[in-house]
Amino acid sequence: MKIGIVGAGMVGSSAAYATAMLGKARHIVLVDLDPALARAQAEDIAHAMPFAANCAVESGEYAALSGVDVVIIAAGVSQKPSETRLDLLARNAAVFRTVVGEIERHAPAALLLIASNPVDIMTGIATRLSGKPAGQVIGSGTILDTARFRHLLGEALGVDPRSVHAYVLGEHGDSEVLAWSSARVGALSLAEVAAQVNRPLDAAIRARIDTGVRRAAYTIIKGKGATYYGIGAGLTRLIGAIGNDEASVHSVSILTPEVAGISQVPLSLPRLIGAAGVLADLPPELSAEETAALRRSAKMLKDTLDALPLA
Q1: 183 and 153 Cβ atoms separated by less than 8 Å
Q2: In which band, very low, low, confident or very high, does the pLDDT at 218 lie, cut at 50, 70 and 90?
Q3: Of 1, 21, 30, 308, which cross-links 38 as Cys (Cβ 3.0–4.6 Å)?
């Protein structure tokens, strides 16, 4: 499997490193506005390969993306002081016009995997710019939020988080929805497991988990400036699901026909991922409160996307 990564900063390089080390691709091409950065990242990762997997890692121009199966887009601009969110989005939309155009020129058959923030809106923009079916333009969405939720639930219950089946829905951001009502450990509800292992999930613990999931990025950014290892691993997991045609379930963002009464909105739901991209949506049953929260999240994302001119 050959993949491309546009944007060789911390997120793009972390995804490249994790993908190469785990052997999820045989060939990785890094492209960046700064060719020296892309070259340095590619060489550094390539030098780790004798200790790990058989993966060729190189940098190049957009033409080097010819023949790739998936392109991760981790490019974008940072927010300026006093700049509004819509202003930032407008500038990132301009970046995506160039990036998506070049990818479509050199790798028209490639799936697009969007990592640039705000990832849901950028996924909607990339879908519209590329003209691809929605299931072929996949945002990393809440895959990392879901991992955080499972980690904290596993920690609270004394359970391996890989045995926790719980999802975060909606926006990758402040309006995201933790789907407590459908969460399971094995085949049991959280309440049943908590009783059996004698670790009750009272209101205080639930509040702490909610804060830990919802505010994790702020805490990490305050401590080290950015988040990249977690999302790098999440992107690698998606590369594996696509490359192995797994039909495995992941909470990712696509431009969705309808959610909670809101149409054509980019947000995350649990979805089957395989070689063709998103194969099916698998929305969980939600409580009335969770459904209302998902609708609020969807409306905010829909209004933001619709306010952005792409011309």
Answers
A1: yes
A2: confident
A3: 30
Measured in whole angstroms, the distance separating CA 18 from the mean position of its chain's CA atoms is: 15
User: Is the entire prediction scored with pTM above 0.70?
Assistant: yes
Does the CA dihedral 272-277-280-283 come out positive or negative? positive
Q: Which residues pair with 263 in a beta bridge?
A: 258
Q: Collapsing DSSP states into helix, strand and coil, what is residue 243?
A: helix
Show the tokens assigned to 105.
């020129």
Are the C-beta atoms of 300 and 307 separated by less than 8 Å? no
CA–CA distance, 232 with 143 (Å, rounded to integer): 11
List the beta bridge partners of residue 3.
Answer: 28, 70
Question: Catalytic positions, please?
Answer: 172
Give residue-wise pLDDT tens across range 148-201: 999 999 999 999 999 999 999 999 999 999 999 999 999 999 999 999 999 999
* Longest distance between any two alpha carbons in the chain, whole Å: 58
- The 8-class DSSP code of residue 137 comes to E
Q: How many CB atoms lie within 10 A of CB 186?
A: 10
Q: For residue 74, what are its two tokens?
A: 């981790």
Peptide bond before 284: cis, by omega within 30 degrees of 0?
Answer: no
| Residue labelled with tokens 């500038």 | 91
Alpha-carbon distance of 3 to 19, in angstroms, equals 10
CA 83/CA 12 separation, integer angstroms: 25
Question: Which pair of structure tokens corresponds to residue 308?
Answer: 């952005």
How far, in Å, CA of 123 to CA of 16, rounded?
20
* 22-44 b/e (C-beta count within 10 Å ≥ 16 → b): bebbebbbbbbeeeebbbbbbee
Instruction: State how beta strands 164-165 and 188-189 pair.
Output: unpaired
- b/e code 263-280 from CB counts within 10 Å (16+ = b): ebbbbbbbbbbbbebbbe
- Which amino acid, one-letter code, is at 83? E
Question: Strand 164-165 to strand 168-169: parallel, antiparallel, or no bridges (unpaired)?
Answer: unpaired
Whether 250 contacts 238, CB under 8 Å: yes
Q: 162: which 2 tokens?
A: 């890989």
